[in-house]
Amino acid sequence: MGGAFDPIHTGHLLAAEAARDQYELEEVWFMPSHQPPHKAKAGVSGEQRLEMVKAAIQSNPAFQPLDIELRRGGISYTVDTMKQLLAEHPAYEFYFIIGADMVNYLPKWEGIDELVQMITFIGLQRPGSMLELDSLPEFIQDGVVLAEMPLVDISSSLIRSRLRQGKSIRYLVPDAVYDLMIRSGAYGIHP
Ligand SMILES: Nc1ncnc2c1ncn2[C@@H]1O[C@H](COP(=O)(O)OP(=O)(O)OP(=O)(O)O)[C@@H](O)[C@H]1O
Ligand SMILES: O=C(O)c1ccc[n+]([C@@H]2O[C@H](COP(=O)([O-])O)[C@@H](O)[C@H]2O)c1
């Protein structure tokens, strides 16, 4: 599962767990992007986003952090990441977990025709972006399976916006992430 994770939140964790459970995945690897392909670079450093990911998933042995995109630098095209991961783990079968907003965007992904040969996407419903598989080209539809999760109207932008307004974000992120956000000072929250 790739993302900016600026910051990681409960919606990410529920999506990952739904995909793991429904597709019997052995592990879910959380990969913070360096520079996302289609949105502005995160406001906080890659290191800080990775630390928050680690804090969020530490209690789940099936969830692992992966800094492959942060180490590579540049724009985090998934096709490049998957080529690297498949070369390192030729025996593994890879899935890529994405929310509905990203599923609808797949035709615009770099090297999508190559990417659908390498992995299967697991798409999850997300409020505000209904999954429209039928409107995608058939070769992409064939590369996407769906998983169910309770609709969770949480996004990293919602969290950042609430912080700007001085509103609470407790329980929108796991406690361990909340504590780290306070300790690191990364998002300007004070106890
Ligand atoms: N609440 C959610 N439900 C389902 N999928 C989600 C949810 N939040 C994020 N995702 C998915 O997780 C992946 C990584 O998301 P990302 O780190 O960009 O978070 P985001 O909340 O979408 O961020 P932002 O609001 O800054 O755009 C994407 O595929 C996204 O669609
Ligand atoms: O490779 C691409 O062209 C591409 C385009 C959009 C998104 N992605 C990946 O999809 C994941 C979620 O994207 P985002 O923008 O919601 O953080 C993240 O790992 C991105 O690198 C990848």
From TrEMBL:
Enzyme class label: transferase
Pfam family, one: CTP_transf_like
Keyword NAD: yes
Known catalytic reactions: nicotinate beta-D-ribonucleotide + ATP + H(+) = deamido-NAD(+) + diphosphate
EC number: 2.7.7.18
Keyword Transferase annotated: yes
GO MF terms, alphabetically ordered: nucleotidyltransferase activity
InterPro entries named in the record: Cyt_trans-like, NadD/NMNAT, Rossmann-like_a/b/a_fold
Boundaries of every Cytidyltransferase-like domain copy: 2-162
Pathway listed: Cofactor biosynthesis; NAD(+) biosynthesis; deamido-NAD(+) from nicotinate D-ribonucleotide: step 1/1
Keyword terms, alphabetized: ATP-binding, NAD, Nucleotide-binding, Nucleotidyltransferase, Pyridine nucleotide biosynthesis, Transferase
UniProt function note: Catalyzes the reversible adenylation of nicotinate mononucleotide (NaMN) to nicotinic acid adenine dinucleotide (NaAD).
Similarity field: Belongs to the NadD family.
Identification of the protein by name: Probable nicotinate-nucleotide adenylyltransferase
